[in-house]
Every structure is written in structure tokens, then in C-alpha cells.
Amino acid sequence: MPKTLQEQLDHIEREIEQYIEFDKTEKTRFNRESHLWTAEDRIEWQETQSDNAQTLRELFEVRDALRGQLGQQSGGRMLRQVEKEQEEALTESTKTPGARLCSRQPR
Prior knowledge:
By secondary structure, the protein is mainly α. The protein has a domain at 5-26 and 42-92. Helix content is 73%, strand content 0%.
């Protein structure tokens, strides 16, 4: 684990970026492949998305706490933009593409 608060913050921010990138990749995969999935596959995918969204929320909380300890203010325009994008990614990660998650698709 990183030693200084700044190193810890950098580590957490990298984790957040990785989760957001993974989420984007998974949504692309869902849109491309989900019509081939069973209902169980879709449920499992949704549970994974929910778990990832919860992890992101926890990472955002840790990040905010570390920023507070470092005395960083989130008043800067660039920082607010990054935070907005990350919050939007979290919001999107809780949404499931497709209108009918668990119902069978017509053949």
C-alpha cells in the first residue's frame, strides 16, 4: 500500500479509472452479446454491475476522505469536471442497457 496520503490518493484514483474503464467495456460487451445470453447470464451480469457500482461508491468516499486529509479543495474547474465524469460513470454503471433484462427475447 502506498505510504503517503498523496500516494494513497493517486492509487485510489487509478482504481476508480480502472473500474470506470471496465464498466464501459462491459456495457459494450452487453450491447454486442447479450441477445445470446441466458436469463441466468443476464442476472449474473447485472449483479456484477451492481457490485462494481458499490465498489465505485466506496472508492469515491475514500478518495474524498483522502482529499479532505490533504486539505485539497474541489473548487477547481478541472477537478470538478473529473468528479462530474466519475459520478456520471457511477450513475451509468447502475443502469442496465436493454429494456427487458431477465425476460426471454422473441426468436
